[in-house]
Design brief:
heterodimer, A: 395 residues, alpha/beta, TIM Barrel, 17 helices, B: 373 residues, 4-stranded parallel beta sheet, 3-stranded parallel beta sheet, 12 strands, globular
Chain lengths: 395, 373
């Protein structure tokens, strides 16, 4: 099969089984770039100069459902109001582009949007700091349409350890397990991207519903804490969950991991914080980049992860979570949200069948939300809303 | 041009017809009495309330329930003043559930604490489907009533719950919030409304969130009365002419409220209105005279930590008050407006204003730092 015809075949497949993407940071980009002035970034028109995401490219990329991340920084106070502002941003987008974006809260809504040819729009909160240790706030987020919560972001929180912080409670605390139970009762998916492996295992022990990884790849292919270890992937078939592979080069390509570590060290050696983006800091960073060319990930890098994850966890537990507009760099061929057909074409060339790919792009992610709804319906008949506090459970 | 059109016309109130100069004019339907004028006053009060139930403008129930380890509102709950059997006895058809926070709560906790209150009310409603029903619009209030349920409306909430962001106003409205008290923030303070404050009022009009001015400063009250396109209300205000309480309204404000077709909801508390039923009735008489019979309503203020007049100790006691007003010669039409009609009108007008404003205005993106610098 030639490259052109497999790309054609990929596009044809995506017309029937479009991509459910687990994580897109467009709301955060709109907040940071234009403070939610949606006229200044009209996504009905191409926004390639500023964003990875706009409606024409989502269409070109064959996206049929998107979890919009309502991420807020974990190192600032006022996470709850900021999260609500992010939710308002998504609601404004839905009100503005009703012909393209369909509000979706259930698996049935996702299927209805696919039938209408609109992009089902769901929300995911990125980090337990967004609920400020309050289960009532968790329920308010659910009532507003948030359908998954990543338990942590880059920093530990009081009840869960992050993958990119020092171990603290050693996974989930008692209150952390209560949060998972309450998410099960509401029907909100437990997202284990960003969390420490210990937290992943604790959450899998505690949950009654399938979990997701909204944007994480395989640690066996690229040893980065943001990726999923094989022993956790092996538990997904029993749990029924879905691991959505991410494209972020510094997580998926070993050379890029090493390069990023060196670049960060270089920044610190010059007396800057490694995430500093001021003019002087960027000068130091660019000088480093001139001496050491940045390694480039490709479509094949991501496909390698998927091949491995498929070996370990099986075809029924895979999905896609690009993290567009949440990362500075993207792989070659997956430069923005129009790139998904390239990945599907690569997998077709590697011998993935049509039915395998339909599961990867659409069916698994829809199934997992429906399963969470079923579990919630069951639990609500026997369990009242929890009002446990972190003080009462974690002392 | 767009600016000019923004204010071309204020949408009219519901129920007021344009003068079409019909000849002969359609006569108003005569009001048919629902109570037998010969019967005992209390019997007449019950008959009247059965047809025109009470829309109670303020209940502190959420905060009171928060500290009870267990409660059952359906069976009757002596730890609070409001439960389903007593609301049935008192003919309470609609209840505004306050999301106010106790004083002294840190500002950065206000948002989460308001969400917690809201969550509690929603949980209580889900757990009492035979007695309570969540209502967002005037139509839903009537639906709930026709199904024999007490309609629960969310609010008033404190202005601090917005954390100085119009986005949060929209999100809270999406969760069901209907009333916001405009006091105690930098943009609605003793100094009056700032530019951001006016933007909040415009966004409230666009969404259909009512402005509550009980406890607001004089200058804020004046400015909101002038700026709001929807009627405003005071959820807990008596007449200052009768009792000098800071939340009670002086006559000029009452007259202004009447002119703008707002609503003064008179609380049944010993502190604000007096220790007896007759004191409360005096306030109602006074407000009716100054503001007009279309601008007065009731606010039980139960479970809000206030002492109540004798005979009006809980939500079942409204018939005693109505009997007292009947004794004073209030007409059935005025009483129907007092208990139910006026609140209905204000809710419905706010709904219509919101629909009209949504045609003209985009959601506000104003930020306090830009407007109030």
């Amino acid at each position: 099969m030639t490259a052109v015809s497999s790309l054609e075949a990929a596009r044809e497949l995506l017309r029937e089984f479009p991509v459910v993407d687990g994580h897109n940071d467009l709301p955060w980009a709109l907040r940071e770039q234009v403070r939610y002035d949606l006229d200044a970034r009209d996504i009905a028109a191409p926004q390639g100069a500023h964003l990875h995401t706009d409606l024409p490219r989502l269409r070109e990329g064959g996206v049929g459902a998107q979890y919009w991340s309502v991420y807020v920084r974990s190192d600032l106070p006022d996470a709850v109001p900021a999260t609500l502002e992010q939710i308002d941003c998504v609601r404004q987008l839905l009100a503005r582009y009703p012909g393209d974006l369909a509000p979706a809260r259930t698996a049935a809504d996702m299927e209805a949007a696919r039938a209408e040819g609109r992009i089902a729009s769901l929300m995911g909160a990125e980090g337990g700091h967004s609920i400020a240790n309050s289960l009532a706030t968790l329920r308010a987020l659910y009532a507003l349409g948030v359908r998954y919560m990543t338990l942590t972001h880059n920093d530990n929180i009081a009840w869960a350890d992050s993958a990119t912080d020092e171990p603290n409670v050693g996974g989930l605390s008692a209150f952390g397990r209560e949060v998972v139970r309450e998410m099960n009762r509401e029907g909100m998916l437990v997202d284990l991207s960003h969390v420490a492996a210990t937290t992943m295992r604790d959450a899998l022990d505690a949950t009654a519903a399938p979990v997701i990884f909204s944007h994480s790849s395989a640690r066996a292919i690229c040893d980065h804490p943001r990726n999923i270890p094989d022993d956790v992937l092996e538990r997904l078939p029993a749990n029924g969950g879905v691991a959505m592979v991410t494209f972020v080069p510094k997580f998926v390509l070993q050379a890029a991991v090493d390069w990023t570590a060196e670049a960060d060290d270089n920044m610190r050696a010059h007396g800057f914080h490694h995430l500093d983006t001021t003019a002087e800091a960027m000068k130091v960073h660019r000088a480093f980049e001139e001496r050491n060319p940045r390694p480039v990930a490709t479509v094949a890098t991501v496909a390698d992860h998927l091949d491995h994850m498929r070996e370990v966890t099986g075809i029924d537990h895979l999905g896609i979570g690009g993290d567009y507009d949440g990362t500075a760099f993207t792989p070659e061929g997956l430069n923005d949200v129009s790139g998904y057909p390239n990945l599907i074409a690569e997998l077709l060339d590697r011998g993935w069948s049509r039915s395998d790919l339909a599961k990867l792009t659409w069916q698994n992610a829809v199934r997992v939300l429906g399963a969470a709804e079923d579990v919630a319906r069951d639990l609500q008949t026997t369990r009242a809303p929890s009002n446990a506090t972190i003080e009462s459970l974690d002392g | 041009m767009a600016d000019l059109q923004n204010d071309l016309h204020t949408p009219g109130e519901v129920g007021e017809l344009d003068d079409l100069s019909l000849d002969p004019p359609i006569p108003a339907e005569p009001y048919a009495l629902v109570a037998d004028p010969e019967a005992d006053l209390l019997d007449r009060a019950h008959a009247l309330l059965a047809a025109h139930p009470v829309a109670d403008g303020y209940s502190g129930l959420p905060w009171a329930l928060r500290h009870l380890p267990w409660y059952d509102l359906e069976l009757g709950e002596i730890a609070v003043d409001t439960d389903v059997p007593r609301m049935r006895q008192g003919h309470v058809g609609a209840l505004f559930c306050s999301l106010h926070l106790p004083e002294g709560l840190a500002a950065d906790r206000a948002v989460a604490a308001t969400l917690e209150q809201l969550d509690l009310v929603r949980t209580v409603i889900v757990n009492h489907p035979e007695g309570l029903r969540l209502a967002r619009t005037a139509g839903q209030v009537v639906d709930a009533r026709n199904c024999g349920r007490t309609a629960v409306l969310l609010g008033p909430a404190t202005a601090a719950a917005l954390d100085d962001s119009v986005s949060l106003l929209r999100v809270l409205h999406a969760l069901g919030l209907r009333i916001l008290t405009l006091a105690g923030t930098s943009w609605a303070s003793e100094a009056g409304l700032t530019r951001f404050g006016e933007e909040v009022v415009r966004e409230m009009n666009r969404l259909g969130v009512l402005a509550d001015l009980s406890g607001a400063s004089e200058r804020t009250t004046e400015r909101v009365l002038a700026a709001s396109k929807a009627p405003v209300l005071c959820t807990r205000s008596g007449a200052r002419g009768l009792r000098p309480h800071p939340a009670n309204l002086p006559d000029d404000v009452l007259a202004g409220l009447g002119k703008e077709r707002g609503l003064c909801l008179v609380p049944l508390t010993a502190e604000q209105t007096g220790p007896t039923v007759r004191d409360v009735a005096d306030h109602l008489d006074h407000v009716r005279t100054v503001a007009g019979p279309g601008c007065v309503g009731l606010s039980g203020t139960y479970d809000a930590g206030c002492a109540h007049p004798q005979e009006l100790t809980d939500a079942s006691c409204y018939p005693h008050l109505v009997a007292e007003l009947l004794r004073r010669g209030w007409s059935e039409t005025d009483l129907a407006l007092l208990t139910w009609g006026n609140v209905q009108r204000v809710l419905r007008t706010a709904d219509v204003t919101a629909r009209a404003a949504q045609e003209r205005r985009e959601p506000s993106t104003a930020r306090i730092a830009e407007l109030d610098g």
